[in-house]
Specification:
By secondary structure, this protein is α+β, with helices and mostly antiparallel strands. The chain has helices at 10-13, 20-30, 151-158; strands spanning 2-3, 6-7, 43-47, 52-58, 67-72, 75-80, 101-106, 111-119, 122-129. A 4-stranded antiparallel β-sheet has the order 3-4-9-8, with no helix packed on it. Strands 5-6-7 form a 3-stranded antiparallel β-sheet, with no helix packed on it. A two-stranded antiparallel ribbon has the order 1-2. The model has no long low-confidence stretch (mean pLDDT 76).
Length: 159
Amino acid sequence: MTLGRLSFGNSLLDRTLGFERFINDVEKLLDTEVKPATTFPPHNILKVDDNHYVVELAVAGFSKDEIEITAEEANLIIKGAKKDKDTEVTYLHRGIGTRSFTKTLHIADTIEVRGAEFKDGILRIGLENVIPDHKKPRKIEIGNELKLTQAKLLTESAE
């Protein structure tokens, strides 16, 4: 079976359901027209435990007033815009990166931003994976009859 550019044998798609969005996202990553990811500023992603993560960005030369963090749909967007205060200074060498940047990290729908801190030139953003109860694993009881064709069962499940 072929889905867009990706080709899968029967083994993968026959055993999965609802992964169309994932497959579309992979195709976007493989698309040659996609701009390469920006490497400035450098960043780390730390896994604290199964549900907590920290994103660290090295933003030396920026103040916290020059950085904006936005959580929007499935994206964490960090923007930095340097306010040029050094108009009267002549640099012999300028190696500290102070150019404006936008760093976008794609995050799962269940990830929530819990806060941010800025210390010693490192911006740290705390994330938590909050899984709703209806998405957590649950045990399904086995009854004697399924009764999916009875109108009563269908109206009870819709309420």
